[in-house]
Inverse folding.
């Protein structure tokens, strides 16, 4: 242990002698394992200098520890923590005293972070992408951007904002200038920032029923009055929303692929929604979380791109097209909201991580992104087909599988009589992650279904998991 | 342009023919520069497949663009955007219409992000650290952690939490277990999360006067009633706080080095503050932003380490000891607050960036961190002395310089008659950043002083900037 890394609080004004404070501090460090058995203590001179006290206080404390068997002195080699420690007699009470029961978690954690099938949100990086990623990272670190070494723009780097704007204009028909883009730590941060700027406690907000739990939690945290709006085969039922809360401040909507049902918001509904927002002065928060991987049918443009009145806030993420551990996403904002979101981002966590921004910029601008998307689209389509085949083989009677045209997960409705939460628990006991859909419903009558992710899982693992799921259901 | 990367919204139900929609979409992409001059258009067959429409609609649209001079066809080579574009006649109105004036920024942005002296918060990474950083990053990317590819624990990785807990116990006398650590995107996020969990609109919060503007903004965003508590030579005046708001829910405090004045909270005041928090059931938010680099005198332990009642939330950052672009910091939480902060972190941005977490873990655990701290301490002490010398040479009459015992910035009081905001503006016109201190005061009578950073600036640049500052004052 370096003297520099050890600090013992010394209170000269208090009743405890300095020698005793050094002794107690070292003993605590030894008993807690901060200085491990066999570890070397700092030289007395260095520790005395570090603590700003007389060396003889340190020497006396070491002697007491030596006498009690906490440390061993080796001539010419210094002092070391004993391998056989004595039992302490007068330890202070532990800090981790029984606390008040914690509040219930806003979002379920269990099973959320595993790599097991069929967890959602898992990604694949193939060898080619990994190789490119390594070389772009090494190049960025060879000559680090001075921006790394200081605080930066809360909107993110101008280069990445430009790359995102060009990509969204071309691929998603989003109408935007780079100045409207704010680079965030994923779509979730983009949404949370927008809600913090727009909502005052008690403001009504339309929320799809069923809907995405993490955004529901963010709405609740912002103090919103959540207005559940039912979803049918055309997506969010806009007239129901208008009937329930015509004065709502905001509507959260997933037009390209409704979460969790996967339906697409029809063109008629889109026009109805835009007209309402324009009339009511409401904001539409478009979460385009999952539209990059499309396997069949016509692609769907963004809602933002057909909005002539500037009421749509567009949110997207690199967590799906690249990987969640990257923590990069973006919002495209109507100009009137830009300054508020920038300020809130600053007080929330200042700005994005600079190195990753640079690597992603190069990845897009040098053409790797388009190639990665194309390869992954093929790869994930294969994974989707493998999952569908495995479910049809092992659970033909139990599940009604909806084969999605896009995205990284599918919805499997359970045979009548089964409840999704019970099935999910039974699956979890066998190491299989199957997310129940019924808890995502608010006022609408819930369906019993599982959300199963196929991205980032090997076909063999998915077959194994389908068999286990069948056993869990038996 | 790849067909995959181009999306034109097609509305089959609307009044505009599909052919016309393709024509308008392509023309917009050309005029906006999304397909640059000379750029190649996708083959008609690929674009028709991508858009899910008949190929002859695409062919007809291309022919119209060709006839109007927007594109050029080269036999056997495809279609390219013309280098001489015609003037468009019927463009839709731009989205960037004059908007309502934005709200005033919560925190001043100007000059915040420059590399010029004397901006604060700039860091140095020497060749040795950079070399280690490159090799640790390459090693982590050689065999990527599966955690990269999915969503992860909102508290951060167990490995980094353990490393942080061990470091803080030894170096800052913080009493904590790894389970109490939440890894955040810098100290600012740690503070913002804690405020979101603890404060309800209207709750009183003590805030040092003068105090740190970004936290003042976060308190305001959380709806707190900010109670300014004056600061004297012993730090925050606790009795004044008790007199003003004995029932406050929280006190934000910078005990190791008061921001911006640099004074240390005395032991008597620490005991008084802890006793009040215990009695009132209030929380103490300790921001230990700047205590790693100490040049003289005894080191100061954390307030958290002497708190027997578990009322202190300890916050720190890697932005100063490593670099701000990293965006990593941490909070050490009393157990009762852990679940609330984890949930709020999840809805705020899920979890930290996985690669950087891994690199920092290795950097600490393999001993590079301790070496980096030691080298940087020497380096920054030299930078401090260089700045003090330059100011004494060029501005002996104008500034009263306080030489700090720790940290990365100093406070220079202005000669009576000068105002810090006017001086800062004059300096900015000469490319020198000098942060005025008077705007950081709330109710207390402001001093006229500049906050000058010496970290991350070369001595030669600081001498130049001192000369320019002298000219700005003349």
């Amino acid at each position: 242990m370096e003297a520099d890394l050890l600090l013992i609080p010394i209170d000269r004004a208090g009743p405890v002698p300095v020698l005793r404070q050094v002794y107690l501090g070292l003993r605590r460090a030894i008993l807690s394992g901060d200085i491990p058995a066999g570890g070397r203590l700092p030289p007395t001179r260095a520790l005395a200098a570090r603590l700003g006290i007389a060396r003889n206080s340190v020497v006396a404390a070491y002697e007491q520890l030596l006498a009690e068997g906490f440390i061993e002195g080796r001539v010419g080699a210094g002092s070391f923590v004993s391998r056989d420690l004595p039992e302490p007699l007068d330890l202070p009470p532990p800090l981790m005293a029984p606390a008040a029961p914690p509040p219930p978690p806003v979002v379920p954690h269990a099973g959320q972070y595993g790599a097991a099938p069929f967890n959602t949100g898992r990604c694949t990086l193939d060898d080619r992408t990994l190789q490119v990623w390594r070389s772009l990272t090494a190049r960025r670190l060879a000559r680090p951007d001075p921006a790394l070494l200081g605080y930066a723009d809360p909107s993110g780097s101008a280069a990445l904002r430009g790359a995102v704007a060009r990509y969204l204009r071309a691929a998603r028909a989003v109408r935007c200038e780079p100045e409207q883009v704010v680079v965030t730590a994923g779509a979730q941060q983009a949404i949370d920032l927008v809600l913090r700027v727009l909502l005052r406690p008690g403001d009504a907000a339309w929320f799809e029923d069923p809907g995405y739990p993490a955004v529901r939690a963010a709405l609740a945290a912002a103090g919103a009055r959540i207005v559940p709006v039912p979803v049918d085969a055309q997506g969010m039922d806009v007239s129901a929303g208008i009937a329930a809360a015509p004065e709502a401040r905001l509507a959260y909507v997933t037009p390209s692929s409704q979460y969790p049902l996967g339906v697409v918001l029809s063109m008629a509904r889109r026009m109805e929604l835009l007209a309402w927002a324009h009339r009511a002065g409401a904001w539409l928060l478009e979460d385009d979380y999952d539209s990059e991987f499309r396997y069949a049918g016509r692609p769907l443009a963004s809602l933002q791109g057909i909005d002539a009145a500037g009421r749509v806030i567009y949110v997207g993420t690199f967590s799906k097209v690249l990987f969640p551990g990257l923590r990069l996403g973006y919002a495209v904002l109507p100009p009137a909201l830009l300054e508020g979101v920038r300020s809130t981002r600053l007080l929330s966590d200042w700005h994005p991580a600079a190195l990753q921004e640079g690597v992603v910029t190069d990845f897009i601008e040098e053409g790797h992104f388009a190639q990665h998307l194309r390869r992954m689209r093929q790869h994930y389509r294969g994974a989707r087909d493998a999952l569908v085949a495995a479910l049809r083989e092992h659970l033909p009677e139990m599940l009604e599988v909806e084969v999605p045209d896009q995205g990284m997960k599918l919805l499997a409705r359970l045979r009548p009589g089964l409840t999704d939460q019970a099935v999910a628990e039974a699956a979890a006991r066998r190491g299989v992650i199957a997310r129940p859909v019924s808890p995502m419903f608010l006022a609408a009558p819930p369906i019993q279904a599982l959300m199963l992710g196929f991205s980032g899982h090997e076909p063999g693992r998915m077959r194994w998991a389908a068999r286990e799921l069948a056993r869990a259901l038996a």
About this structure: Chain A is about 40% helix and 15% strand. Chain A has three domains: 3-96, 127-368, 371-473.
